[in-house]
Amino acid sequence: MTPSGTLIDKSKHEAFVVKCFDNKLVGLNRIYQGSVNKFTKKSWHDNCLNKGPTLTVVQADNGRIFGGYTSQSWTKGEGNYKIWTKDDKAWLFSFDHSTQLKVTKPENAICNYYASLCIFGGGHDLGIRLDGGDGWSDLGGSYELPAGVAAGD
Fold first, then answer.
1. C-alpha–C-alpha distance, residues 6 and 139, integer Å
2. How many other CB atoms are there within 10 angstroms of residue 112's CB atom?
3. 92: phi > 0 → left, psi -120 to 50 → alpha, else beta; which?
4. Is 126 helix (H, G, I), strand (E, B) or coil?
5. How much is the pLDDT for 27?
6. Contact between 125 and 151 (Cβ < 8 Å)
7. H or E element that contains 11
8. H helix or E strand, kind and range, residue 18
9. Are 113 and 136 in contact (CB under 8 A)?
């Protein structure tokens, strides 16, 4: 983490982020940080739902930094139902590999579900839970696979 408490290190990541946004400079404002706002669903929902486009940045226990972008707002879903949101502009990324994975099934770009924070992809390409939960990835369901990786690897 950089001294300012952000996972995006301008000197290391700015050029890659600009490239992911089709070489356009974008303004990013932090709306949630687990170490500051608490690692709970309630805190994430309070800070992140209905905010418009978001860039989700995650640091795994092994130090790897990755995440996803959606141009759509996250919502809570309804009851025990998962609500899929179409987004043809969504993508996943890895800072460690300078890799951007574009959505291949935009109708399942993101999933809004009350029991999770954010889920990218119909096959749960990337998902994050809090409140004692975990995260998971199963790339290739609704997003491109990284070069040299086959489905199920």
1. 25
2. 20
3. beta
4. strand
5. 82
6. no
7. helix 10-20
8. helix 10-20
9. no
The 10s digit of each residue's pLDDT in 91-141 is: 999 998 899 999 999 999 999 887 778 899 987 899 887 666 678 888 899
**What is the tens place of the pLDDT at every residue in 2-55?**
334 566 777 788 889 889 998 887 788 889 988 888 888 889 889 999 999 999
Cα–Cα distance measured from residue 111 to residue 101, given in angstroms and rounded to the nearest whole number: 17
Q: Which residues have C-beta within 8 Å of that of residue 13, sequence separation ≥ 6?
A: 95
Q: Which residue has the tokens 């987004």?
A: 87
Provide CB contacts within 8 A for 149, sequence distance 6+.
139, 140
pLDDT score of 2: 37
Bridge partners for 130 per DSSP: none
Measuring CA to CA, which residue among 55, 140, 137 is closest to residue 90?
55
